[in-house]
Amino acid sequence: MGVNIAKLVNFRNLKEEVLEGKKIAVDTYIQLHQFVRTMPLLADDKGNVTTHLSGLFYRTARLLEMGAKPVFVFDGPFLLPDEKPEPVVMPRVSETITLKMAEDAKQLISLMGLPVVQAISDGEAQAAYICSNGDAWAVASQDYDSLLYNASRLVVNLTMSKTRKTSAGDKIIIGMQYVELEHMLKELGISRKQLAALAMLVGTDYNKGIYGIGQKKALKMALKYGDDFGTMFSELGWKDEYAWEQVYNHIMHMPVVKDYKLKWNTIDRVGIIKFLVDERGFNMERVENAVKRCMK
Q1: 80 has pLDDT over 60
Q2: Which of 2, 140, 143, 174 registers the highest number of CB atoms within 10 A of its CB?
Q3: Residue ranges making up the domain that contains 177
Q4: How many domains does the chain have?
Q5: Contact at 8 Å (CB) between 151 and 139?
Q6: Considering the domain boundaries, does residue 137 fall inside one?
């Protein structure tokens, strides 16, 4: 679900040429979920869903054509504030994204010569950690959680054009956009700690938020109380299952993999054709053309 702070984020348009040579940490789970939810259902001759592979392959090919260097981060298990990571970590799955779908996606990404990082908890926290380390220029996601996790830069609508209706009912096209965390915090007049507390007022994946407090009111409260979060949550009526300190510390110190390795390899043309065309029934000509674009 993620935190909804869209009204507080002042995005700027991102031109394709800016991505050339840039390393992008991709929030993979939300991409796969988006493909399955919005694209027509595709399946191979054995009935295995391939919608996510189609979306992943052609969008990634477009990203490589732009000259970007993506790294794909997979969510681990969803951890509540009182939970610790399991020793053996598997990709997060749901009714929409099965374990097989996640593993197939990892295989395709590897065949495209791109790095995969398996998070031990929240994938956006892991992507933000990679970004804050300087190993990626930005996190790519449709959610805003990575900003809470200290991602220096967030890109939305990666490689795609998105339509939105205006109040008059007209459709406008929104391309890639980005926001820099430092610039955003300066505009809002708050710190990253206050951003996390503000998000908790609105509601996060780990708490419901406080009734009657929307994004703009939450900002007013963050500015009013400053770093006195105890007084703020007490006076505004915190009634969540977890104490505010538990949720806050969980957001600020989300478990991440610190010894990740990022390596970009040559695309495996033969392997991709075998995987997508021979085994998954993709169109040979379309796959070949996409591979050629990736290799330019």
Answers
A1: yes
A2: 140
A3: 6-188
A4: 1
A5: yes
A6: yes
Chain segment 33-76, per-residue pLDDT in tens: 999 999 999 999 999 999 999 999 999 999 999 999 999 999 99
The answer to whether the Cα torsion of 257, 182, 19, 160 is positive or negative is: positive
For CA atoms 271, 277, 283, 284, the dihedral sign is: positive
Q: Which residue in 71, 86, 91 sits closest to 261, CA to CA?
A: 71
Output the domain CATH number for residue 76: 3.40.50.1010
| Residue 44 in tokens | 């191979």
Return the half-sphere exposure (C-beta side, CA atoms, 13 A cut-off) of residue 20. 5
Percent of the chain with pLDDT over 70: 95
- Residue 130, in any domain of the structure: yes
Spell out the residues 6+ positions from residue 233 whose beta carbon is closer than 8 angstroms to its own. Answer: 197, 200, 244
Look at residue 159 and tell me if it is in a domain: yes
For the stretch 88-106, pLDDT in tens is: 899 999 889 999 999 999 9
- For residue 51, what pLDDT is reported? 96
Question: Among 162, 183, 180, which residue's Cα sits nearest to residue 171?
Answer: 162
CA dist list (Å): 292 to 108, 267, 289: 16, 10, 5
Helix, strand, coil proportions of the chain in percent (round to 5)?
45, 15, 45
Token pair in block for residue 171: 């459709």
**Is the pLDDT score of 85 beyond 60?**
yes
H or E element at residue 187 = helix 181-188
Q: Determine if the pTM surpasses 0.85.
A: yes
